[in-house]
Amino acid sequence: MNRLKTVIAGLGLAAVVVPGIASAAPWQSINQRQARLDQRIDQGIRSGALNRNEARGLRRESRQLAALEGRYRRDGLSQWERRDLDRRFDALSARVRYDKHDRRRYR
Fold this sequence. Notes:
There is one protein chain. With 107 residues, this protein is mostly helical. Helices cover 79% and strands 0% of the residues. It contains four helices and no strands. The chain has helices at residues 2-22, 30-47, 52-74, 79-100. Helix 3 packs antiparallel against helix 4. The termini are far apart.
């Protein structure tokens, strides 16, 4: 009887935890990621968290990434190219986060 209760409790806990983990980082399309990064850069400029040089560099990287995506999409986006773009977007997102919080507020 105790074993049955333990199994049921474990299954109930798994039913609650697993969907929460899966939805923690929802998948975004490439266009959504680009738009979100641009919004974060704009917000950083407005709040003063990004200075002009940081914003210029981040926007340049964003444009280069968009150009790379265009080259990849010409003949269809392979799984490797999709992963490459995801890695590059992750790196750019980390750079936006770093630059926004590095306390360089001069213009």
